[in-house]
Predict the structure.
Amino acid sequence: MRELADTRVAVVGLGLMGGSLAGGLRGQCRAVVGVARRTETVETALARGLVDRGTTDLAGGVRQADVVVLATPVRVILRLLGEIGPLLPEGCLLMDVGSTKAQIVTNMAALPDHVQPLGGHPMCGKEVSGIAAAEPTLYQGHSFVLTPLLRTSETALALGRALVEAVGARPLVLDPHRHDRLVAAVSHLPYLLACALVGAAETTADADPTVWDVAASGFRDTSRLAASDVTMMLDILLTNRAAVLEALNVCSVQLRYLSYLVEAGDEEGLRTALSAIRDRKLETRNLKCGT
Amino acid sequence: MRELADTRVAVVGLGLMGGSLAGGLRGQCRAVVGVARRTETVETALARGLVDRGTTDLAGGVRQADVVVLATPVRVILRLLGEIGPLLPEGCLLMDVGSTKAQIVTNMAALPDHVQPLGGHPMCGKEVSGIAAAEPTLYQGHSFVLTPLLRTSETALALGRALVEAVGARPLVLDPHRHDRLVAAVSHLPYLLACALVGAAETTADADPTVWDVAASGFRDTSRLAASDVTMMLDILLTNRAAVLEALNVCSVQLRYLSYLVEAGDEEGLRTALSAIRDRKLETRNLKCGT
C-alpha cells in the first residue's frame, strides 16, 4: 500500500465532516476528489478550494481512488457499503466517519475481499451542518477513533492513521462496540439532554412565554446540541439504541438522586454530590475538545 | 428620592456579580462603595478600579448609602436582610441580585419601614465566580428581573430601573413566584442536567476511563454549568425547591418520551419530536443571552 502523499483520496459526502476532511487533506496527497449528490455542493467545494476535483458520479469518483472515505449520515453509509465494493479498485482502503461503529463495521465485514475496510469516527463537529460550515482545521487536536476489522491489514491501518494525523487529529484504536458505549455517554446522551431541556422549556413557555426573556447563556449552552441535524442524529440514535438507552438509564439514576436530595432538603448530601461533580468537571475542562 | 447620578451606591459582596455591578455603575453615580468580608477582595476591587471606596465594615459601608445592593449567595442575603435594616439611612433603596426571589421578597417584607426594598435578579453570569472574573460589561444586553413589593414606592422602583439601565441591562418586572418558576426551567434545570451528565460520564469512566478521550465539545458545552460555584447553587436549589422539582419532573417526562421512542425504534415519532425541538431551539438561538 502507498504512502499517503502518493494516494488519490475520494471523499463521498461533502457536508461539514466530509468537506472539512477533504480541505484538510488537500495538498497532503496526490489528489482529493469530492463526491456529492448535488452539483451545487460540488461547485461550492471547488470554489472553496476544499477538493482538487469534484463529481456527482459515485462510480467515476472512486474508480481510481487509493482511499475512499464515506462521510454521509450513518444509514447512508450502511447503504453505500452494500453498493460500493465492486466500484473500488484492488487494495482500496475504505474508511468512514460515521458517528456509530458497530453496525457499520458489521456491514464492512461483508465487503468484497479486494477492499481494505477501516471504521472511523472523528470526535469533533459542530451543531451546524453542510459544506458552508466546513473548514480544513476542523479535525485539528481532536481524537479520531479507528475501528479496524480482523481482515484489515497492518498497512491499511497505518495508512488510515497517516490520514488521521494529516488532518491534525489523534488516532485512537477502539473496538466498535466499546466506541459505541463510550460515545453514547458523552455524545448521544448530551444531545438527548439538550432536547429534553428545550422540550421542558417549551412546556413552561406554553403557560408563560416570558420564560424566553429570562433564558440566559446557561440555557443556551446546555441546549446547544438540540440544534443538531435531525437526520444525522436519528441515524445515530437508531443505530446505537442499546447503548443510548443504557446511557439514559445511568443518567436517570443521577437525576433521581439529585432530585431526591433537593426534595429532602439534604444540604450536606447535596453539597457532597455537587462538589464531587464539580471537581470532576473542572478536571475534564481542559479536555482536547477544540472549539 | 434622588436621581441615580446623585446617589451613593453600596454593593455588599464583591464576587463576580457584585464586582461587575460596581464596575458598571462606577462613574454613573456619586460614588460606589464596595463591601466585602475579606480585605484582599476590597484591595482587588480598588486595584481593578471597580469601586470608588471599599471596606470590610458593613455598617460603615452602608451608613451613607442611597442605594444598597446585596450581591452575595442567596442564603447570605436572607441573613443580611435580618440585620441590615437598622444600619440603613432613611429612604434607602435596598436591592439584591439573588438568583431566587420568593423567599428573599418574603424576608424583605419584614424590613423596617424607613427602607425601600426591591428584589432583583440579573439574567447573566458565568460558571466562574469571584472578583477576578468580574467585568463592568457583564450585565450589558441582559434581562434584569425586578420584583417590587407592595410597599415599594414608584420612585424607588424607578431608581431601581435606572440602576439596571445604567449597567446596560433591560428591566423586567415580575412577580417573585413567577420568576422562580421560570428560572427553575431555564437556569436551575440546566445546572442539574449538566451535573447528571457529568455524573453519568463518571459512572461510565469508572468502567472505562477512555470515555474522557472521546468526550468532545458537545459534552463540554452541555456540562459547562456543572462547574458552577456549589455554595451559590446549593442556596438556589434549597430556596426554590418546589419549582426546581416541578422543572425536573417536566424534563423527566420529556426524557422518558424520547427514551420510549428510541427503545421502540419509532423513526417517524422520533423525527417529529426532534424536529420540533430543533425548530424551537433555532428560534431561541438569538435570545439576548450575551456571551
